[in-house]
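[job 0417] fold request received: Fatty acyl-CoA reductase
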Amino acid sequence: MERSEIVQSLENKSILITGSTGFLAKLFVEKVLRVQPNVKKLFLLVRADDAISARKRVEDEIISKELFSVLKEKYEESFHSFFWSKVCVVVGDTSLENLGIGDTKLINVLWREIDFIVNSAATTRFNERYDVSLNINTFGARNVMLFAKKCEGLNMFLHISTAYVTQERKGIITEKFFEQDELLIPKIETENELIKRKLKELEDTCASNNIIKICMKELGMKRANKFGWPNVYSFTKAMGELQIAKLRGSLPVIILRPTIILSTCKEPFPGWIEGIRTMDKLILSYAIGEIVSLPACLDAAVDGIPGDMVVNAMLATMMTNCSHPNSMLPIYHVGSSSKNTLRFRLISETSYEYFSMHPFTRKDGKLITVRKPIFFSKMFFCIYMVLRYKLPLQVLLVVATLFSSQILKNQYIKHNQTYNHVMLMAKAYIPYTFMLGRFDDTNTEILRMRMNNEDKAMFSFDPKCINWDQFLMDIHIPGVIKYGLNG
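[job 0417] inference complete; emitting structure tokens
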């Protein structure tokens, strides 16, 4: 019987994982502990004030999750002793030098013992503050790379990026690293100085924390749009990739670019997800009646991939590339658009069907009846929203002012906030609801072909096996409601 080469490669190995309390990292930790209990040590970098609060974060945000139910059933009363025999919590912060690890002895242990580094630390909010996003997604990647170069026997550095670092939206988008000159990306030092100046200006005018937050978000979107990106997330992730490439030297490095990460397809059980992610915000806004129209192309490719498949690809790229060193910087797209395209039309139809059968309930106990959504081109969407909502709102404001009606003013404030929220969401998602490109996954397919049959079964990431209609109806949408919304 064929043995799993990936499982064997994990035996007695130590892995440093950043972003360890995030969705993807939790899936990674669970998978490693489940398939290879003889892993030596998983070092989880956690932001916290001290070791006690860091351990509590792991207990509250990782161990307590239903994600670990399969492992808990296997080990029963000994689960916690098994978990803590394999996991070491490291207090740190990727935005700081030496990852903010204050314990000198521990740093030396890490530099000596770590075999693999998985950098999954990121903020994925499309409209994040620019200073926060740059610190985590760009400077964070830089700091982890510099830390990796001090590790004596590092086998592989795996950096988790996103397929949307590219500015292209049509045709075949290749697994290629884009140089700074190709993308016209500014230097991170320039951006950092720009942020510092803006923060200084705001502090000098005694701006409130809320005003500072809004200004930092606006600055991030302005800079991203100026250089051709739809949001600050993909912009700062692209700058992070450049730092990895610039600093890696001879270090073995892989960049993994997942597309839109969805709930688990199979492991450790179908439907697990954490938080409301990417397209799920649109789905849930539609379910509660907040969105009935949207700028979108029904034939647009919504490139989604289940979270467990992304983790399988992470482990496959890490372990397989160790025995196949490459002087080039390997890029792997992990998605579905080139092999099994999910179109926006199916998401729309499935959402309507699901919430017609399983409607949400209002606070007053009444069921929310969903209508078939209306889709427009970008220009006609704006015209429709102004005529259908904005103009009536302005009339309501005038009437409320003329009659000094606080009730009408409150109605105006409430509905205007909803209108602004929908418009901001539409702007953020337009690059994805009009995405006509396909992410080439040739490198990922070659990797899959190199795997033996046992590894292909244990670490599957072939999107061709996904039945999108069944996955959305029976797994993903119920999972988002159970774990993402209520978890």
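[job 0417] notes: The chain has 19 helices and 13 strands. Residues 406-433 form the longest helix (28 residues).
[job 0417] exit 0
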